[in-house]
Amino acid sequence: xxxxxxxxGKRPVSGNSVSHSNRKTKRRFLPNIIDKRFFIPELGEWIxxxxxxxxxxxxxxxxxxxxxxxxxxxx
Length: 75
What we know:
The protein has helices at 53-62, 64-74; strands at residues 13-18, 24-29, 33-40, 45-52. It is an alpha+beta fold. The chain has one domain: CATH 2.30.170.40.
């Protein structure tokens, strides 16, 4: 299961774990992905999305239909 946000496209990035002695070992920074169902009253249907929590906060602020329209306008 890929850890990619359906709306923002956020995906894991790589970096270093740095110890107290300043040794560096590779690690991955994973986005906080959750599965969420939304009801869109304008369309009268449910959709299921895998979202990062930052996208979920934006949806809570603007509403799902408005946010989807803005993303569609961006491309």
